[in-house]
């Protein structure tokens, strides 16, 4: 099948018809799932490019039984946009960045970083966690788009959300681990769980402090996912409070001065009103 690359680039730029109800839902529940955001053709084209780069750059090759819980959860390759120009086209999509902007009700967003998350066949669970534990950022105006590159049924381990848990301060000091899974499973019982499959072209957006997890991949195919993390374009850097934030400050924020806007070449504005 012949691919019209110009049509794909146009799709990445065109605004998505985001219902007002989706913004209201995100503001209350801390996440939203949106159907038909990206076409089958686009996901097929860029999905192959992303997968090829994951295979090329992956360094985690030890047997599954020798891995930690975190390592069993997925192969994780970050900032692919800096390693391939076509991945950059995908990661810099104004269509997706505008959705992130509108959901957070801000004036624009910057890239924090992207990451491919590939859960291999027999890959384990992704434990309960909140992403912003890792980020030395001053406000909760952060959001991640989770983009499955294939239809993702329950046996592949789709992302699951503890609804409204972005308001929970318990557990915000926990890294992704067996401990976070066990402890937060008890703390999150008052919150409804959204754990449903993803259709092809369906994506989710979740807030930085929303607790989420994913099941094991019990299928015989990899669960291929691309993500981009966005932050309010006016977000400021705060002093790191743990070793992971220290590493993020140096790696993804270019060690910019504490209290300043992260406006280095690593964190370009992707959409701005």
Lay out the secondary structure.
Blueprint: H1 5-13, H2 20-29, E1 31-34, H3 40-57, H4 69-73, E2 75-78, H5 85-91, H6 94-104, E3 108-119, E4 126-129, E5 142-148, E6 159-162, H7 178-187, E7 193-195, E8 203-207, E9 212-214, E10 223-232, H8 243-251, E11 269-272
Antiparallel strand pairs: 1-8, 2-3, 3-10, 3-11, 4-9, 5-8, 5-10, 6-7, 6-9
How would you explain this protein's 3D organization?
It is a single chain. With 273 residues, the protein is α+β, with helices and mostly antiparallel strands. It has a single domain, classed as Sandwich (Jelly Rolls). Helix content is 29%, strand content 22%. It has 8 helices and 11 strands. The strands form 2 sheets. Strands 1, 2, 3, 5, 8, 10 and 11 form a 7-stranded antiparallel beta sheet that branches. Strands 4-9-6-7 form a 4-stranded antiparallel beta sheet. It is globular, with a radius of gyration of 18 Å.
